[in-house]
Automatic annotation (TrEMBL):
Protein name: Ferredoxin, 2Fe-2S
Keyword field: 2Fe-2S, Iron, Iron-sulfur, Metal-binding
UniProt-listed SUPFAM superfamilies: 2Fe-2S ferredoxin-like
Native source organism of the sequence: Algoriphagus hitonicola
Family label: Belongs to the adrenodoxin/putidaredoxin family.
GO biological process assignments: P450-containing electron transport chain
GO molecular function annotation: 2 iron, 2 sulfur cluster binding; electron transfer activity; metal ion binding
Cofactor(s) listed: [2Fe-2S] cluster
UniProt keyword Endoplasmic reticulum present: no
Ranges where the 2Fe-2S ferredoxin-type domain occurs: 1-105
Length: 107
């Protein structure tokens, strides 16, 4: 199991525990945890409605792919540690990370 923290738009933080052996994406775990993530494209990195910002632990997650960066760069608000939750797999690399849900991507 992997533990990480999610900060919502109101600044409230909640620790999430997720299985790291089932191949889930961060987007799937956020939706299952009832966070208001649209995920319009279903995780194909085509819509950027699962935009998050990695507040802590971004170095462990590696760099965003070119496809992911193309979507992120089209957002009205884009941060140096912005990522698409659909492109991050639940793994030990997420242990201790803090992610923040971002703007227009939530319901």
């Amino acid at each position: 199991m992997v533990n990480f923290t999610v900060e919502d738009l109101d600044g409230n933080r909640q620790e999430i525990e997720a299985p790291d052996d089932m191949g889930f994406s961060l987007m799937e775990i956020l939706k299952a945890s009832e966070y208001p993530i649209l995920a319009t494209c279903g995780g194909m990195a085509l819509c950027a409605t699962c935009h998050i910002e990695v507040l802590e632990g971004s170095d462990e997650l590696g760099q965003a792919s070119d496809i992911e960066l193309d979507q992120l760069e089209n957002l009205p608000e884009y941060y140096p540690t912005s990522r698409l939750a659909c492109q991050i797999r639940i793994s030990e690399m997420l242990e201790g990370a803090v992610i923040k849900l971002r703007g227009e991507d939530v319901i």
